[in-house]
Amino acid sequence: ALIDKGNHRHFMQKEIFEQPVVVAQTLQSYLRPLEEQVALPQMDFELGDIRRVTIVACGTSFYAGMVAKYWFEQFARMPVDLDVASEFRYRQPVLEEGGLALFISQSGETADTLAALRHARAEGQKIAVVVNVPTSSMAREADLLLPTHAGPEIGVASTKAFTCQLAVLAALAANLARARGKLSADEERDIVGHLAEAPAALNAALAHDEDIEAMAHLVAPARDVLYLGRGPDYPMALEGALKLKEISYIHAEGYAAGEMKHGPIALIDENVPVIVLAPSGPLFEKTVSNMQEVQARGGKVILISDAEGIAQAGEGTIATIEMPRVHPLIAPLVYAVPVQLLAYHVAVAKGTDVDQPRNLAKSVTVE
Ligand code: G6P
């Protein structure tokens, strides 16, 4: 099929805006709305027999895995290990019987991830793969193939493949929870309902595109930018920083909000924008107090939260980005949008090559 940018200036922009459609498309394979159940493709083993999950990936796919670790632990009470693929084999991981090794990759060809998959297979693990390219090496080598239906992703910096990975991983979390007896039929029905709302929530997030474009000038001149989050929003902070680095060449770091006082707070001054990802919920107050520590040192905060969170803590920030209020299971999908758009608009403001950033490759097939 001919792939073009349509009305968009860049593939990355097009792919960001495709997310409601491709996430809906992906969820279709994993939800049975009529039965109010989640569902997985056929596999030759029992999910309920799995005793530990080892998640391995690179780059943005690794951050999807990091979000999944929070979900698998919280919802399924499943022990989870997590590694970047380039470290996995070499640290001699202990892989015991009953382990499921889960690989996440847009391309299905990343050399480190593929080598890690083969290592895990040799060590007797069941192999699950979340992958966007159905004909890829990883897809062929899986015991449990969990496709994302994001369609071809052309922009080097991953966007829609990432949110589709999260959608699949959320469904997998629910399946694991059910298999382990941690999910009642009512809870499962609720989860199906919340996941089904994700595309609409993504649309609501995308509606802030112009606001975010208008605040790009707050970030574009910076030399350093910090992203803070807690819980599953911590990996989202890491992903936000990665997106900004990749396409705008601004040095950015994601930090667990509570860890900021152990180092990065030393960097804070009026020239370091701090992007805080904080949906309202049980961790909100704690993140806000970390945010206030930044403000007390003259730091300029951009708060990404829902209306309630912004009403509670928006004062003293230089800007706020309002997200719809959503269930914690879909918050990472929704909060992906503003960090993608911010990176995109900052890069456009700086005039960098958004779709083909210098020194980066779409798929890294060497170690
Ligand atoms: C490269 C790309 C990233 C991607 C990473 C992992 O670094 O530039 O966007 O996240 O590879 O790729 P994969 O295809 O395994 O998800």
UniProtKB/TrEMBL annotation:
EC number: 2.6.1.16
Keywords: Aminotransferase, Cytoplasm, Glutamine amidotransferase, Repeat, Transferase
Domain SIS: 43-182, 215-357
CC per GO annotation: cytosol
GO biological process: amino sugar biosynthetic process; carbohydrate metabolic process; fructose 6-phosphate metabolic process; protein N-linked glycosylation; UDP-N-acetylglucosamine metabolic process
Membrane-spanning intervals of the chain: none
Major enzyme class: transferase
Main localization category: cytoplasm
Subunit relationships: Homodimer.
Known role: Catalyzes the first step in hexosamine metabolism, converting fructose-6P into glucosamine-6P using glutamine as a nitrogen source.
Protein name: Glutamine--fructose-6-phosphate aminotransferase [isomerizing]
Species this chain originates from: Sphingomonas cavernae
